[in-house]
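Table S2 (text version). Query chain:
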Amino acid sequence: MGQFKPFHLAFPIRDIEETRQFYGDLLGCDIGRSTDKWIDFNFFGHQLSAHIKPEELTLAKANEVDGKNVPVRHFGVILPWEEWHSLANKLRDYRIEFVIEPYIRFKGEIGEQATMFFLDPCGNALEFKSFQDESQIFAK
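Corresponding C-alpha cell output:
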C-alpha cells in the first residue's frame, strides 16, 4: 500500500481528563504534548489533537450502510485481524456501549471487513475495522 504517511486530526472534546483516560488508558494511545486546552495522542501512528471546545460537539447523524445506521462523522483505524478482535473483547469487558456491535460487514462480498462503532466520552464516533485480505481495503 505504499509508504506510511501519518495523518493529523483535530476534534472537539469537553474535558481533558476523561479524554486522556479514554484514549490513553482504554485505547492505549501514547500521550504527546498537552495544555489545559488540548491534548495530543499517538493514535496508532497518527496524530490526534483533542481540543476543549464543547460547543462544537454535536450528535452524529447517520447513513444506512449494510443495514446499519453508521455515524457519518467518524474516524478510526484499520487494525490487523487479531488485534481488532482483541480490542473488541477489551471494549466488551469495559462495557463500552457500541453504536454498532462488532460484526463482519459485506460478508462474502468485495470489501468484506470486521467493523465496530462506539463513542468516546464526548460523543465523537469511532470506527475500528479490519480486513483479512488487505487488498480489499480499496477494492471496487
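Notes on Table S2: The mean pLDDT is 94. Residues 8-56 form a domain with the 2,3-Dihydroxybiphenyl 1,2-Dioxygenase; domain 1 fold (CATH 3.10.180.10).
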